[in-house]
Amino acid sequence: MIKTSRKKAGALRDERSAARTGVSNDTEPAWWKEAVFYQIYPRSFQDSDRDGVGDLRGIVSRLDYVRDLGVDAIWLNPVFASPNADNGYDISDYRAISPEFGTMEDFDRLVREAHARSLRVVLDLVVNHTSDEHPWFLSARSSRRSPYYDFYLWWAAERGTPPQRRSHFDPAGTAWRYNPPTDSYYLHYFSARQPDLNWNNPHVRSEIYDMMRFWLDKGIDGFRMDSISYIAKDPSFPELDRTACPDLFSCYARGPRLHEYLHEMNREVLAPYRCFSVGEGSAVTSGEVARFVEPGRQELDMLYHFGAAEVRNETTPDGEGTDIPYSLIALKRMFTRWDAAVGQGWPAIYLGNHDQPRMVSRFGSDEPGLRELSAKMLATFLLTMRGTPFWYMGDELGMANIRFRRIDDYDDIDTRNGYIRLQHEGGDTQLFLREQAEVGRDNARTPFQWNPTTYAGFSEVRPWLRVNPDYPRVNAAAQEHDAHSVLAYFRTAVTFRKQHRNLIYGSYRLLDADNKRVYAYLREGGGERYLVALNFSRRNALTLPGPELGRARIALHNYPDIAAPAGRVIELRPFEAVVYEL
Length: 582
Ligand code: GLC
Fold this sequence. Notes:
binds alpha-D-glucopyranose
């Protein structure tokens, strides 16, 4: 059975290669450059066994829906055994499926059923840390003489107070936790329930590579690598350079031997299996990305960055006359910089995932009348940019932030521990809650909205996280047969992308860079030219991108009607998106 699924994956690969026609560009074609990835958060997609938690059988039952979207691959957030301190990002057994999600047979079936629909399967690889309930850590923490002690990173108490390291989720903010039986502190960049693995130890690395082979032998097609930029640490723990990285976290992505480990992993696992890899580029800057993804370096296929979230959170509007709550000019510059920075590598593009709020709420508007238009505009952006789009489930319906009001509504360790920390520090918890309503991760984790029945068709019982009350209006069933729905538009846009290989592989050039409300760019390759004009604001806007449009053909647009192009000026209505073929 194992052999069959590997053969199947191989067949998928060959079928795609055969479909290639000569597009002249510098980029070597690859299935994952042409693919649209669809991210499924398993807890929230479909419950099949009435426990209020999504599961593998639930996913299988919805695979036709996924196939009909036109996407090519699914990325599943962790489905492994876990006490769920961080919803599966704390793994207690790398080779077991969490009973909440089903059995290994269910998993094998999911891979088979996905492949039967030409959907590849990508798993989350969480190897910066394990759960504190992983047998390695249970043994390690029991005694300094445990053979697993050196699987983790420790600071012996006799050396005094450990050097400062910050933690993402710890209520006290520190990444060290004292462990009495060993009289030492262990390192945890995330919560204390997620101790960091010691990659300096070759046994750790070979255990991880074996585990990766275990899943690849089952027929999966690749990995999304969690916090992969954080894995390398100097075991002497020098004081970090506060000028180089004032927040400390940026230093985490520059650990010694990081690229040596990634190259080794490539040589040991990724290359022999010809499998796909995308890394989560926590704290990686555009100046560093090429080192991860340039093909000659033989590390990862792609790395995704946090640029869009940073621009959204950290910039202010571009001045007079814009209604956009952040700097669109900065957003454009950021994407343009990253596009160039990958060098001979390939970009990854996304605007939302399980760690971010809903993209329509953050970059568009979820107000009635604007939600659909802006969701379609953002889809146009993701599907016409250079780079592989990572699409988050439910964004094809325009699912929006739930905006919880009370701390008890939240499940997420990030929000809950952040709140506790602020309480200790005497900070403004009300302000924190208002911010979390906009940026909290649970906004993206509410159950998928399938239909207008109770619990949105996600489950027959009360789900683990509240369903967004907008589900009677916003759901897949309602959009399925509506030719003007966000869902229908998404399918059209995916098809458009698929049918235009020159758009996929063509170059990207930013136009009208200083425009405060319109993002316009040119995609050019194989003798074809596409001009994309996107109004990111809720008011009418103009752009003068340059090319004469008189003979342009309108290839894709998100309003039901549109005037024929003329001259050089493009007038766009609120959140209007137009793709011209020049
Ligand atoms: C990554 C995951 C996030 C998780 C964290 C710790 O950022 O995407 O969900 O909490 O790593 O594993």
